[in-house]
Amino acid sequence: AAASCGVAAGALGDWSRAESSRPWHAPSSASLPTFSQKEVSKHTSADVGLWVTFEGAVYDITSFVQNHPGGVDKISMAAGGSVEPFWALYRQHLQQHTGKVAPKEVIAEILSPLQVGWLDPADAAAEAAAAKARSKDDAYANEPERHPALRMLGVTPCNAESPAALMADSWVTPNELFFVRNHHPVPRIAEAEFSLEVSGLGVERRSFSLAELKQLPKTEVTATLQCGGNRRSGLNEHRKTSGNEWGVGAISNAVWGGVRLATVLRSCGLDLNDDGVAAQLQHVQFEGVDGTKASVPAEKAISLSGDVILA
User: Fold this and answer.
1) CB of 154 within 8 A of CB of 96?
2) What is the b/e burial string over 227-243, where b = at least 16 CB atoms within 10 angstroms of the residue's CB?
3) What pLDDT, in 10s, does the model give residues 151-205?
4) β-strands 57-60, 195-198 pairing
5) Helix, coil or strand: residue 126
6) So where are the chain's domains?
7) DSSP state of 64
8) Residue 96 and residue 103 in contact, taking contact as beta carbons nearer than 8 Å
9) If you ran DSSP here, which 8-state letter would residue 30 be given?
10) Residue 6 and residue 285 in contact, taking contact as beta carbons nearer than 8 Å
11) Cis before residue 157, ω within 30 degrees of 0?
């Protein structure tokens, strides 16, 4: 497994038009037309409409994609087919602890007016069978155990708050009580298999094992992390929001230990005294094993007196 640094869950039951009382189906949905999967598969662009299916219903999401919290690219991957394989991974779309494959209330409200028809029964049955087969290969099967004191907002992916009653007991949050904010399954990585790939402007492409990183000088930084949705539940008292209803516990403090990013980049040949290279550097981009990306301004990343570390 390699990280890089560079300059519908479960089996689905039978569906029926008689079940149009489901909140994610429009009240008049029983009278909507039927489409084959072949017809749906043609709707993969804004020009002809972006269509997706869910539990036998067909939705035109063209007008919604620009407002999708996860971005246009991700939701567009489902165009022309079922959202269920994607929701099996991004389970924050679904109600949890219910034993049912049902979207969260806010998502149901979005879906309802977007329904344009029904999927042909034979195609719907085939998709249900495929979903049942997918459920046997659960991407979340190897999630780590969580401390029971955490306030769980979601299990798959895990989103959990530090317990409010214990937050003031220590300046540094105990590891097992550190809040969790995940979008994907937790990658299982063996230390011996981990590698960090470095490439980009002004550096030699190089791969570091964990053992090699540990041989570099260690630095410790005390830093607080907070989810942007912390205390969102309080906003719901005034206006309904989307996303997890975080209380006060989506924030934790820790002493992080690791090697300075500037040290790693220098070991890859980056000349921090070369004004020409420095003038061209804009951002250092990071990509995790799970595909999540982030970046920091190069000026901060390469500062020898800065606090950017690979922890």
Assistant:
1) yes
2) bebbebeeeeeeeeeeb
3) 999 888 899 999 998 899 999 999 999 999 998 889 888 899 999 999 999 999 9
4) unpaired
5) helix
6) 8-134, 151-310
7) T
8) no
9) G
10) yes
11) yes
How far lies 137's CA from each of 97, 107, 219, in Å?
A: 19, 25, 40
CATH of domain 8-134: 3.10.120.10
Q: How crowded is residue 70: how many other Cβ atoms within 10 Å of its Cβ?
A: 12
Backbone φ and ψ for 81, nearest 5 degrees, come out as: -155, -160
Q: Which residue has the tokens 């929701």?
A: 87
- Give, in words, the CATH class of 151-310: alpha beta
Calculate the dihedral angle through the C-alpha atoms of 249, 253, 257, 260, rounding to the nearest 10 degrees: 100
Angle at 292 between CA 143 and CA 107, to 5 degrees: 75
Q: Supply angle C-alpha 306, 308, 309, rounded to 5.
A: 125
Q: Does pLDDT of 73 surpass 90?
A: no
pLDDT at residue number 26: 58
Q: Which two tokens stand for residue 73?
A: 């690219």
The Cα 257–Cα 292 span in angstroms is: 22
pLDDT at 15: 35
Task: Please provide the DSSP assignment of 134-187 as one string.
Answer: HTTS-TTTTPPP--TTSEEEETTTTEEEPPGGGTTS-SSPPGGGS-EE-SSPPP
21 contact partners, CB below 8 Å, separation of at least 6 = none
Q: Which amino acid, residue 110?
A: I
CA of residue 215 relative to chain centroid, distance: 32
Convert the pLDDT of each residue in 17-44 to its tens digit.
434 445 556 556 678 999 999 999 999 9
Mean pLDDT of the chain: 85
User: Do the beta carbons of residue 9 and residue 88 sit within 8 Å?
Assistant: yes
How many Cβ atoms sit within 10 Å of the Cβ of residue 249? 23
**Which of the two residues, 19 and 253, has the higher pLDDT score?**
253
Q: Which of 178, 212, 219 is nearest to 198 (CA)?
A: 212
